[in-house]
Design brief:
Belongs to the acyl-CoA dehydrogenase family. One of its GO terms (molecular function) is flavin adenine dinucleotide binding. Its cofactor is FAD. InterPro entries: Acyl-CoA_dehydrogenase, Acyl-CoA_DH_CS, Acyl-CoA_Oxase/DH_mid-dom, Acyl-CoA_Oxase/DH_mid-dom_sf, AcylCo_DH-like_C, AcylCo_DH/oxidase_C, AcylCoA_DH/ox_N, AcylCoA_DH/ox_N_sf. It is a single chain. This protein is of the alpha+beta class. It has four domains: about 10-85, Roll (Flavocytochrome B2, Chain A, domain 1), CATH 3.10.120.10; about 125-220, no CATH class; about 255-365, Beta Barrel (Butyryl-CoA Dehydrogenase, subunit A, domain 2); about 365-515, Butyryl-CoA Dehydrogenase, subunit A, domain 3 (Up-down Bundle), CATH 1.20.140.10. It is about 45% helix and about 15% strand. The protein has 20 helices and 15 strands. It has helices spanning about 15-20, 50-55, 60-65, 70-80, 125-150, 155-165, 165-170, 175-185, 200-210, 215-220, 225-235, 240-250, 360-365, 370-395, 410-435, 440-445, 450-475, 485-495, 495-500, 505-515, and strands at about 10-15, 25, 25-30, 35-40, 80-85, 255-260, 275, 285-295, 300-310, 310-320, 325, 340-350, 355, 400, 400-405. The strands form four sheets. It has a five-stranded mixed β-sheet with strand order 1-5-4-3-2. The chain has a four-stranded mixed β-sheet with strand order 6-9-10-13. Strand 3 and strand 4 (about 35-40) form a beta hairpin. Helix 15 (about 410-435) packs antiparallel against helix 17 and helix 17 (about 450-475) crosses helix 18 (about 485-495). The longest helix is centred in the C-terminal third of the chain and has 29 residues, at about 370-395. The radius of gyration is 26 Å and the shape is globular. The chain starts with 11 loop residues before the first strand and ends in a 7-residue tail after the last helix. Bound molecules: protoporphyrin IX containing FE (HEM). The site of protoporphyrin IX containing FE has 21 residues, from strand 3, helix 2, helix 3 and helix 4.
Length: about 525
């Protein structure tokens, strides 16, 4: 018999009449999904109160339990409280931790039972998906759930594991840099070669990490690297590049991208942080402030866009004298390490220039498409995850004696959410396919606009999904613990990606402006 938790105890078979005789305070057993729990001592510690729990002493509490608790309560408390199983019965609740869910629309079409294989995917993509699903369940989910609340950085132990598994490297996407990283001894997950590795592998890695439903922790675990390291890999001075890449990709040190300022966001050209050469000509002296810098709280390096005479220059600034990071208290979670950075007379060697002096904007823009695409992948995976939570809840929660799903108004809400998420998925896959068949310059010409529109679409879907999900979960959707915690978390998060990486207005406008550049003189 498969139990929802691991236990070293031998669980005896108990007939229902025997269970019914343990029906009073101090001697209370109850049944949840055919497993018998002795709650005699636990009752006084039950967060919902002893009274309501003891109403079920001697009885089957399955339906009442799943109307009020997430399955993970059983996973956590089961080993302590379970004493047996009901004779001739076995658990019916499906435990999908680490497995692929059969809940309708919970998984991408590619892994949906009965669906044909999509042309974008090969066996190596499924290998990466299986590997990531297991890796996340075994190593990430528990810590993510804890740290999302406490707002702490990922543990060193986890960072090193992620690095060793090649996950940081995979999040940097395909390209010639993968060959360089492999020459440095870094390996992609599942033994994939740099040549084989493509955007669909990266998409899967991002989606699987996002499926913890903990976006703050997701960002804490390497988003700074995804946007901060590419400038160093692609444009770093040979004298520092290899050392920094080794330190960051091995998990020993961390990096972030520092562009945005209190007075300059989507209008990057408006930044005010200055870097001026000192008298020796060997150092830049940096002064200024950066705001909303993901991972900045614990980053060792800051890929920082500065104003230099005649233009803008990106500098790799190590944490040190004159660099100070303070937390920015955003609405999602401090686990992302979002920070306010001040640079006061920070001396940076000229070898730390990333790219050419005066070419900082070009270096910055180089990574924009990839950044927008990866934000879109993360948000899309989260919307699917939230929809799956809603589908499960509407089946498990009973109102006026019937499950929520039996209400037409609820089914309308699910239909709106699902149809948007499925459409986003198809568009995301179609553009990802295009990215694989275009050079960098072709992508800039043909895909910057569509990727902007896709990001706009997915963050609009996120707004709809969050809104409907809260309505479906009611009070639980605005409560940080218990049944609706994923919904509440998502509700605090979904506005962030609609403003960072190019606000909805900016990316939507980019999409249309880019299309209009190619508008033929065609008349109605
Ligand atoms: C093995 C049995 C049980 C365990 C281990 C357990 C554990 C918990 C825990 C950890 C919570 C905190 C909220 C959460 O994390 O979801 C909770 C809340 C609660 N529990 Fe239980 N529980 C059990 C059975 C029951 C039963 C049979 C009932 C009867 C209806 C019940 C009623 C409640 C209520 C009303 C709350 C408060 C829910 C809320 O705040 O919305 N529990 N329980």
């Amino acid at each position: 018999m498969s139990l929802p938790f691991a236990t070293t105890r031998t669980l005896k078979k108990i007939p229902r009449p025997e269970i019914a005789s343990h029906d009073r305070p101090g001697d209370s057993w109850l049944v949840i999904d055919s497993i018998v729990y002795d709650v005699s001592t636990f009752a006084d510690f039950h967060p919902g109160g002893a009274g309501i729990l003891l109403e079920y002493a001697g009885k089957d509490a399955t339906e009442a339990f799943y109307g009020l608790h997430r399955h993970d309560v059983i996973v956590k408390f089961g080993p302590r409280l379970a004493i047996g199983t009901v004779a001739n019965e076995s658990p019916k609740v499906v435990n999908t931790v680490g497995a692929f869910s059969q809940v309708p629309y919970a998984e991408a079409p590619q892994v949906r039972k009965g669906f044909a294989q999509l042309p974008y995917y090969r066996q190596s993509h499924e290998d990466v998906r299986n590997f990531m699903r297991q890796f996340v369940e075994e190593n990430v989910r528990e810590e993510a759930t804890l740290k999302e609340e406490t707002g702490e950085a990922p543990s060193k132990e986890l960072v090193l594991k992620v690095a060793k598994a090649g996950i940081f490297q995979a999040r940097l996407g395909p390209g010639p840099h993968q060959e360089y990283l492999s020459q440095l001894g870094f390996r992609l997950p599942c033994g994939i070669t740099p040549k084989e590795f493509d955007f669909f592998h990266e998409l899967i890695v991002t989606e699987e990490l996002a499926r913890t439903g903990m976006p703050g922790f997701f960002d804490g675990l390497g988003t700074g690297l995804v946007i901060g390291l590419p400038p160093v890999i692609n444009f770093g001075h040979p004298s520092i590049k290899e050392r920094v890449v080794r330190e960051v990709l091995s998990g020993e040190k961390s990096i972030c991208l520092a562009i945005t300022e209190p007075t300059a966001g989507s209008d990057v050209a408006g930044i005010r942080t200055t870097a001026t050469l000192d008298e020796s000509g060997k150092y830049f002296v940096v002064n200024g402030t950066k705001k909303w810098i993901t991972n900045g709280m614990w980053a060792d390096y800051f890929s920082t866009l500065c104003r230099t005479p005649g233009g803008m220059t990106m500098l790799l600034i190590p944490r040190g004298e004159g660099v100070e990071a303070k937390p920015v208290r955003t609405s999602y979670s401090a686990a992302a390490g979002t920070s306010y950075i001040t640079f006061e007379n920070v001396r940076v060697p000229v070898s730390h220039v990333i790219g050419e002096v005066g070419q900082g904007l070009k270096v910055t823009l180089t990574n924009f498409n990839h950044e927008r695409w990866f934000i879109t992948s993360e948000v899309h995976a989260l919307t699917r995850y939230v929809v799956a939570e809603c589908i499960k809840w509407t089946n498990q929660r009973k109102v006026f004696g019937t499950p929520l799903i039996s209400q037409p108004v609820i089914r309308q809400k699910l239909a709106r959410m699902i149809s948007n998420v499925e459409a986003d998925c198809a568009w995301l896959e179609a553009l990802t396919h295009q990215m694989m068949h275009m050079t960098y310059n072709q992508q800039a010409e043909h895909l910057a606009g569509p990727l902007g529109l896709l990001k706009f679409k997915v963050t609009r879907t996120a707004a709809l999904v969050s809104d409907e999900a809260v309505q479906i979960f009611g009070g639980r959707g605005i409560t940080r613990t218990g049944m609706g915690r994923v919904i509440e978390q998502f509700n605090r998060f979904y506005k962030l990606p609609s403003v960072y990486g190019g606000s909805e207005e900016i990316v939507a406008d980019l999409g249309i402006r880019q299309a209009m550049k190619k508008m033929p003189n065609e008349k109605l």
